[in-house]
Write a structure and sequence with these properties.
- With 89 residues, the chain is mostly helical.
- The protein has one domain.
- 79% of the residues lie in helices and 0% in strands.
- The chain is elongated.
Length: 89
Amino acid sequence: MDTIKIILTVIGVIAIVVVGIWLIGIISALLWFALWVGLLAAIGYGGYKLFFAKEKSVKHLEEKSPIAIADLKEEDRQLEEYKRKYLTK
C-alpha cells in the first residue's frame, strides 16, 4: 500500500511540474507575440506618421497679420512685470 502511495505521489509531482512548465511556455510565447505585435505596430505608426503627415508649410511674413502698437505695449508691461518679480532677487 505504501508503494502505491509513493508511486502516485511521484506521478502527481511530475504532472504538476509538467503543467507548470507548460504554463511558463504559454506565458513566454504570449509575451514574445505581444513584443512582435508591438514592434510591428510601432513601425507601422511611424511609417504612417512619416508618409501621411500633413505637409508642414513654411510661414511667410506676408501671411502673418500685422502687430498692433497696443499689443506691443501689453508685451512691454508683461516684460517689465517679469523683470520686477524674478530678476531683482
